[in-house]
Amino acid sequence: MRIVPFLAGFLFAASAMAQDWQAVERVEPYMVEGATGLEIYRSIGERGPKLGVARVIAHTGFKLTWTRKYERKGNACVITVNRPKLIITYTLPKLKTKLAEPMKSRWDTFLAGVTAHEKVHGDFIRDMVREIEAMSVGMTVENDPDCQKIRPQLQARLGELSNAQRARSRDFDQVEMSEGGNVHQLILRLVDPR
Predict the structure, then answer these.
(1) In 3-state terms, what secondary structure has residue 62?
(2) What's this model's pTM, rounded to 2 decimal places?
């Protein structure tokens, strides 16, 4: 009977240790201007963050570093600690121009919708980091007393998780930006509120 509460307390502590990190969120605004929805959207097109050759309305980027501890256990190498430090940066438009109603409300709705869209990308990044943490802590490679073989195996798995996160983000953007999608609707309501 006394073992159960002890075990439950231990599991709670282990779970808390696995989640003892928090992502830092930053907003990097870029300035846009205009008095009408169309003028503002053109300004976004001229000043928005560049992805490849095109400019976009907003972007979510991140910087991820790890504190890892590799330990030799017999003839094996084990990752005993893999703690992330995650900084998520949202690049969003910021309007220089003061707007009167109803244009102000249209802009506020547009910005809130774009921000919500980018926050989903932030959630996808957090999910990836949690998956990396879950799969890597306790990862063991036999016949690796110098902890050299474990690193390329870890990198290969990290590449898979990173590619999955990118695919998930692309799929989300494709739905959101397709005709009738949420971002598409936000643009239409900003430019032409009929």
Answers:
(1) strand
(2) 0.85
